[in-house]
Please model this.
Amino acid sequence: MNLGLELRTGDNTSFEIPVTYNPWTFSDNKKWKHILVQPEFRYWTNEAFAGHFFGLHGHYAFYNVGSLDNPPFTEFMNTHRFQGWLAGAGLSYGYRWNFDHRWGLEATIGVGYTHLSYDKWSCDGCGQGIDSWAGAETKNYFGPTKAGISIIYTIGGSKTPKKSKYRPVYPEQTALTVSFIKPAVEDVKERSSEVGKAYLEFVVDRSEIAPNFRNNAVELQRVQELIRQIASDPDAIITNISITGFASPEGTSDYNMELSQRRAISFKDYIKNFYNLGDNLLTARGAGEDWTTLERLVTRSSLTDKNRILEIIRSTASLDAREKRLMALSEGRTYRQIVNEMYPELRRMECQVHYTVVPFTLEKGKEIFRTKPNNLSLNEMFLIAQSYPPGSAEYKEVFVTAARLFPQSDVANINAAAIALNRKDLSAAAEYLAKVKVRSTAYWNNYGVLLWYKGDKRKAMDCFAKGGTTGKKNATIN
Model:
């Protein structure tokens, strides 16, 4: 006979007290008499009395067992009787199916440890102990400690599921409302434009800019045009132009550091004189040999010694020793190929223009959005979007553009995710939310909406709870 009582102890926990009792002796004097108590504390992964659970149980029993059939039991258990007690503990797993608010079915299995202490007789009923040491034995057991299928009847409660303060009942609605964040106002709109890389060639061992040397005229024209666009913008004020020079590894690393510095200064002077800029607006520094770019070029190449080259670059700390080891590969053939095909790309300049942008009125901002959207702040873009009807093409375009121009901004990505969710583009919404670093109320609300639309309503409700929302309220969060 098996009977158990289980009580809810929390939203996700319960305590079970099952009792098993068998007082009978069967035909041919077979015995499986016992009384067993096996209390268990359970943690339910969703909510108490539903779905998966994990348990920690203990057990204590008295038993009188013997004359059992062989098979399935052993010959020893067929010819002996055991009477004593046991105690132990274990872990269990189970699942509960609820058919309605009263009836359910539960399956469980557990493993653990049991200590047994018993007297042993050679035959049932003779009462003569066969053990010379006080007629008793002990045994330690590790293995299955419980297994069962139970029919459940719930006493008390109501037909309406209990609301958990941690897991609200699902909102009765088919469309949830996403959250937007109003960006903070930028007091000073600071911007930087990566003008790019200028691959200038120099006369051997010289640092002067030679505009007519090889392909330098084309490279200089490209850089000049990019700087001119910012310098001629009436809404932009240049605050600094930073120049970084790099060198290829021919020669010693100390010499190449000095050479990259001299070439950066030459390029700075060229830009300063060309635009008649003050010296305080330009900075120049040398970065020495550009091994990072060389490693990237080799990785993408099909060089015969590719793996060996990468091993040398990554494992040799001394820059000069790296070059010597590269020169020794394949009797110098590999090094000559690198010098001819890759070293020219290492002799380069990087130029970045830093500037500020004046604030715009709403109407001016709309014009700028069509021509130079990078001059707008996130706050200005938000206000522009709010001037369009929600859901319109213009409304969506502004938020998507903001996320493209400010890819590191949590605000931009959360708002773009809201736009994607409204049009049921779950893949795009997931990509935007994956970039968010600080998980705010708006993040949890929008992530909950994403999970809801994917069909995982229980996890969605967890997200709403974390954000303090229900998925219903439209939040423009300041």
